[in-house]
């Protein structure tokens, strides 16, 4: 489990917080079901790098002034124009109680599909799951390398759907992805397009009439 070291934060006003940001320190807050919100701060580059690695579906451990606890990233606010973090929210996890989290759907082997040419269409990009923290998946995976034209992947095919410790919010028959043949113009469409192009004789006749 990743460990993130933070400090409790007393700075609250805009000027004080802006001063922290200028020093590469970003403000944040930790909250949970049975705890009062705690203002914290940490090094922006460390927090942003970790968030990009784990997202919002991986439990991490934070150490605040020597005290450790397990959390999830709940939200990260970025500047609308600059590529820097403004604020982060962490949610404290009770390892003995179920949690509900949205995890990304990953189509494994999507770049190695054997049937080519083909068109893989992903309909569902993420799915909500509920489980005890120790069973929390970081992703919902399904292998697609051997899909054939016309095949459909449903929620029931996801690896998490086969785990009795995980409750998936979607119906088992909901479509996750489909594989189809590339769209090609029919001969009829090509004929219509060709028929719309006037011949040289037709063009000269039209000019003489005008």
Automatic annotation (TrEMBL):
Matches recorded under PANTHER family: RIBOSOMAL PROTEIN L25/GLN-TRNA SYNTHETASE, ANTI-CODON-BINDING DOMAIN-CONTAINING PROTEIN (PTHR33284), RIBOSOMAL PROTEIN L25_GLN-TRNA SYNTHETASE, ANTI-CODON-BINDING DOMAIN-CONTAINING PROTEIN (PTHR33284:SF1)
Positions of region (Disordered): 179-210
Domain of life: Bacteria
Domain Large ribosomal subunit protein bL25 beta: 99-183
Pfam assignment, any one: Ribosomal_L25p
Keywords, ordered alphabetically: Ribonucleoprotein, Ribosomal protein, RNA-binding, rRNA-binding
Keyword Ribonucleoprotein on entry: yes
Large ribosomal subunit protein bL25 L25 domain location: 4-90
Purpose of the protein: This is one of the proteins that binds to the 5S RNA in the ribosome where it forms part of the central protuberance.
GO cellular component: cytosolic large ribosomal subunit
Name of the protein in its database record: Large ribosomal subunit protein bL25
Keyword Ribosomal protein: yes
Family from the record: Belongs to the bacterial ribosomal protein bL25 family. CTC subfamily.
Subunit structure: Part of the 50S ribosomal subunit; part of the 5S rRNA/L5/L18/L25 subcomplex. Contacts the 5S rRNA. Binds to the 5S rRNA independently of L5 and L18.
Signal peptide, first to last residue: none
BP GO terms, sorted: translation
């Amino acid at each position: 489990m990743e460990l993130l070291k933070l400090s409790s934060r007393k700075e609250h006003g805009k000027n004080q917080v802006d001063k922290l940001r200028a020093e590469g320190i970003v403000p944040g807050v930790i909250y949970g079901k049975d705890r009062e919100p705690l203002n914290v701060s940490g090094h922006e580059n460390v927090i942003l790098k970790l968030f990009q690695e784990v997202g919002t579906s991986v439990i991490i451990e934070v150490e605040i002034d020597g005290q450790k606890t397990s959390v999830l990233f709940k939200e990260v606010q970025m500047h609308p124009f600059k590529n820097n973090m403004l604020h982060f929210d962490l949610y404290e996890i009770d390892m003995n109680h179920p949690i509900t989290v949205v995890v990304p759907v990953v189509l494994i082997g999507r770049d190695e599909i054997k049937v080519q040419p083909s068109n893989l269409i992903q309909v569902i990009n993420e799915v909500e799951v509920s489980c005890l923290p120790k069973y929390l998946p970081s992703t919902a995976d399904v292998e697609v390398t051997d899909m054939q034209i016309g095949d459909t992947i449903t929620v029931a095919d996801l690896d998490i759907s086969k785990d009795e410790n995980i409750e998936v919010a979607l119906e088992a028959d909901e479509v996750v992805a489909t594989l189809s043949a590339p769209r090609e113009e029919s001969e009829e469409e090509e004929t219509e397009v060709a028929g719309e192009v006037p011949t040289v004789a037709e063009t000269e006749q039209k000019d003489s009439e005008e």
